[in-house]
Amino acid sequence: MASVGPSAASTQPALPSGPAVFKTIPYAFILPEILCGTWVWILVAATSVSLPLLQGWVMYVSLTSCLISLLLLLSYLLGFHRNSENWKVLDSLYHGATAILYMSAAVLQANATINSEFSINAPLNYQLNSAASFFAFLTTFLYILHAFSIYYQ
């Protein structure tokens, strides 16, 4: 007689809680996403914003994403998910949508960097905008990695 194997639900890996969040891919990407996104926000805020419409969107995306990712990280650390599969869907949708928004912000920040090359205080603003562009694209890459790596768990 064949033994009855575990159900499909029990073969799914458990969602991490507590410090295990920092050791489990893709959830380990949340802290670097927050840190790199914070650098985007700080660097753009340190420049003299010459294009408020462009860099306003960058600030909005970076600050909002940092706050929501921080709330998501806290919810994983405190175990609010209770190992529900709906959290994987929520996590994937959030990180996928945020990756798209961050890509738009990174492209706008790169445009602001190009425009700041010939402005007043050009060397300092150009360097700050260049660093902000780098961290914006890096953060975009982290969000993309997070969104896609949920499927390969």
TrEMBL record:
GO terms for cellular component: membrane. One of its GO terms (molecular function) is structural constituent of myelin sheath. It is found in: Membrane. It holds the Pfam family MARVEL. InterPro entries: MAL, Marvel, MARVEL-CKLF_proteins. Keywords: Membrane, Transmembrane, Transmembrane helix. It is a multi-pass membrane protein. Residues 21-153 form the MARVEL domain. The chain crosses the membrane at residues 27-51, 57-80, 92-112, 132-152. GO terms for biological process: myelination. This is MALL protein. It comes from Urocynchramus pylzowi.
